[in-house]
Amino acid sequence: MPPTEMSGAQDGTGRKPPTDSPRAVDASTSARMSLQRRRDTAPELLLRKELHSRGLRYRVDSKLPGMPRRRADVLFTRQKIAVFVDGCFWHACPIHATSPQNNSGWWRTKLDGNIARDRDTDRRLQEQGWQVLRFWEHEDMTLAADVVESHVRGTLIP
Q: What domains lie within the chain, and their CATH numbers?
């Protein structure tokens, strides 16, 4: 089945993609991608469970200050710490990233845009005095919780 055109749709960055490039994918790929969770992924749940068991309290899937369309997976507002658990595909993990063959140009633009948005989010939060902690979904969430806890409690792990 040929790719479909979806002109005018948002790509998550707040910008409309070019109308001359194919937007989406065939029906089977579209169905598979629609099942991907935006929040409450298994690694996020593991991290949150571990943080909660350590007595840490936080906000989940919270809007970021000054960035209404962007959200943190875990947010410690008092300590100004934003935690993100990035998916290997969507954020182009250097170990596990893949490059789709169908609509490769569109996907490259989309994934590059995700990376650029991540860096912009990091920069904007840091300019406002926030600490940004990012972990890949494949990382050990117990070790990630160690890092988060050390930042929250002010006992930084080197």
A: 38-153 (3.40.960.10)
